[in-house]
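Figure caption, in words: inputs first, then the predicted bound structure.
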Amino acid sequence: MRTLFKNIKELLQVRDQSIAFVSGEAMGKLPTIIDAYLLVENGLISGFGTMDACPNFEVDTIIDATGKMLLPTWCDSHTHIVFAGNRESEFVDKIKGLSYQEIANKGGGILNSAKKLQETSEDDLYEQSKKRLEEVMALGTGAIEIKSGYGLTLESELKMLRVIKRLKENYPLPIKATFLGAHAVPSEFKNNKEGYIKLLIEDILPQVAQAQLATYIDVFCETGYFSVEDTERILNAGKQYGLQPKIHVNQFTSIGGVQVGVRHNALSLDHLEEMRTEDIEALKNTKTMPVALPGCSFFLGIPYTPARNMIDDGLPLALATDYNPGSSPSGNMNFVLATACIKMKLTPEEAINAATINAAYAMGLENEVGSITVGKKANIILTKPINSYGFIPYAFGTNHIETVFIDGVAL
Ligand code: NIG
Ligand code: FE
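Bound structure (fe (iii) ion present):
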């Protein structure tokens, strides 16, 4: 099966050689080909170049992309899309000024979602979650990471992870699963966090690993949730089972989460709204990808990750949605790009690099997706006719996507 896209106004994120990620100044450069063709064979990218060098291929399908851009699909390396119901009931409290922590203390927050999830059947949870997955795919997401963490009991954590596995089996995009048992201390362990950590380490984690339900391990390392010491113990336990860390740090307070993550060779450190100089320093010359979640800052009204300073300081950066019912009830990567440009002062080139190649790296998929490279999956976005790629984050309320292709097949 061969498909030829021809007359592409501009083909974005073209990399001849597969690269891991881009950092600092290199983030400002987005390699493109103007007036291009792209050949897809059996779901993979098999060739590209300028139209005047386009060979006379024998193909099954030709798609004329005159006036339109073609780019790799967005990679969303941090989501919680497997959840039950929603938390709209907390929305007005939030509007009236209650903080994330105050809402949690009132019986809302993560424990509210955990209660709902525990009461929801696995089939129902799957049905609710698949709608969200289909929604974000239509918005251009072609690879995604999904976390557990609303179960908080052995049975419910396994239920969430089995739902993620079922999504993986039934949908064509790459999906990575992360075990986030340490998302909050459940009410049954209110005065016994140690008891919950023991349950996590000695009971839940071994069963998750044994059933091969997760690739990564996550901890909400935050004041009032899990301390640096708790995080250290949980990451050490995960390591015994080969689970690499991707952790929530510095969302509300900077307590040493970055340092513990870097020490444990985290693949990514996510949130980073509160960054001290030493946190930025700790990330330098590491293989750990900092991930900003501007949808969460937007929704909660908390500071944005100081991404401009971080990139100017030579760091790489990835962008993700954090799609979840409490702090970012949106999985729209187009909005994330716009917010990154408008609020965090990234250029469109930086934002596109952050949402494609760097985000692919942040979930271990840099050899499969994230750039237009021969041999990678043909997970691509065909835009509507637009003048330039900067128009995507600029005209932030409009859907610029005409068609999303996964493995070269239109959704
Ligand atoms: O990434 N901060 C921790 N976890 C999620 C929010 C979870 C929730 O409020 O349901 C986050 O923001
Ligand atoms: Fe999150």
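The longest helix spans residues 193-210.
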